[in-house]
């Protein structure tokens, strides 16, 4: 019987707090995108109000089966028209606060899922 969880093959979120997220032990103080397929990208979005369809269009290019949208310190849902490219490619999107998105990302990445976390700080 295996008692240890599988290691995440790509980047893992190793910590978070108000205004920061750590990926593989490195702290970031701006919004970012983390992919279980190995990418860690800056996400040029400062606030929820700055979001546009183009931000979600770029996420559709990363090859994920699911995008976790961390909307900051509280849950706020993106405009449905911003998600058309994701829907057209049959990529799921789940919205949650950023801390929940960090935890969910690690869980799904540990299962070997193709998941992307787009995280607003």
UniProtKB/TrEMBL annotation:
CDD domains assigned to the protein according to its UniProt record, in alphabetical order: Xcc1710_like
Pfam families: DUF498
InterPro entries xrefs: MTH938-like_sf, NDUFAF3/AAMDC
Domain of life assignment: Bacteria
SUPFAM superfamilies referenced in this protein's UniProt entry, alphabetically: MTH938-like
Protein name as catalogued: Xcc1710-like domain-containing protein
Organism (species): Rhodoferax saidenbachensis
């Amino acid at each position: 019987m295996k008692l240890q969880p599988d290691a995440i093959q790509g980047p893992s979120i190793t910590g978070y707090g108000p205004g920061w997220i750590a990926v593989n032990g490195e702290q970031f103080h701006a919004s970012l995108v983390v992919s279980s397929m190995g990418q860690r990208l800056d996400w040029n979005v400062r606030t929820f109000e700055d979001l546009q369809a183009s931000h979600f269009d770029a996420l559709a290019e990363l090859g994920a089966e699911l995008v976790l949208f961390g909307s900051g310190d509280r849950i706020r849902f993106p405009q449905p028209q911003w998600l058309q490219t994701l829907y057209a490619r049959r990529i799921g999107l789940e919205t949650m606060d950023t801390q929940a998105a960090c935890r969910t990302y690690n869980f799904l990445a540990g299962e070997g899922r193709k998941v992307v976390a787009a995280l607003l700080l």
